[in-house]
Design a protein that fits this description.
Layout: H1 3-115, H2 118-137, E1 140-142, E2 157-162, E3 173-178, E4 181-183, E5 186-189, E6 192-196
Parallel strand pairs: 2-6
Antiparallel strand pairs: 1-4, 3-6, 4-5
Helix pairs in contact: 1-2
């Protein structure tokens, strides 16, 4: 072989080596870009999933907080309501204990009116009115029931039935034996009545 042929072969070899190197570099670049391209969506997906996971955790914590807050508000409302009921109940026991005293005063007033002693009547009236006003200021209210009112089993306690003195009083209240009292809106003693039949 001549030198010229050797030179051409060497050039071809060099060109071939250069082409192979260029191809390897291109393949490496494409591989690297391909890997980067694959890695980027994965990292984006991971970031999105991490972000979504954090959002879900945040939402769960918010829900948990709101439920806890609502439960606490209900607890406060319930305890304040129970406290008010306790005060009313304590007051109710005292008021219920005072009702027989009021009944005795009413009977005493009726008897004193029959006796005709004006000075004694005025003195007892003053004490009676003072007691009534004091109890009224604490929420005690006498229920107003009169002869001829309709009988209501939810509000009245019938102790007996008598023949009605007139047709108008049939099924109605004929007489009030014992007055009823309310404490606020609650009836603490139902009025005892006689109804006509």
């Amino acid at each position: 072989m001549s030198r010229k042929e050797d030179k051409v072969k060497d050039e071809h070899k060099d060109v071939k080596d250069q082409v192979e190197e260029a191809m390897e570099e291109a393949i490496d670049e494409v591989g690297a870009n391909g890997e980067n391209a694959d890695e980027q969506p994965d990292s984006k997906e991971q970031e999105l999933t991490e972000e979504e996971a954090l959002k879900e955790d945040l939402q769960k914590e918010k829900d948990k907080f709101l439920r806890l807050f609502a439960e606490f508000e209900n607890y406060k409302r319930r305890t304040s309501k129970e406290r008010l009921e306790l005060f009313k109940t304590a007051n109710q026991e005292v008021m219920t204990a005072m009702l027989p005293v009021m009944d005795d005063f009413d009977r005493a007033m009726n008897e004193l009116k029959k006796s005709g002693d004006e000075n004694l009547l005025k003195g007892i009236e003053l004490i009676h009115n003072k007691l009534k006003e004091t109890l009224k200021a604490k929420g005690l209210e006498r229920m107003t029931i009169e002869q001829g009112d309709d009988f209501d089993s939810e509000v009245h306690e019938a102790i007996t039935q008598v023949p009605a003195p007139s047709d108008k009083l049939k099924g109605k209240i004929v007489d009030v034996v014992e007055p009823g009292y309310k404490l606020g809106e609650r009836i603490i003693r139902y009025p005892k009545v006689v109804t006509g039949k």
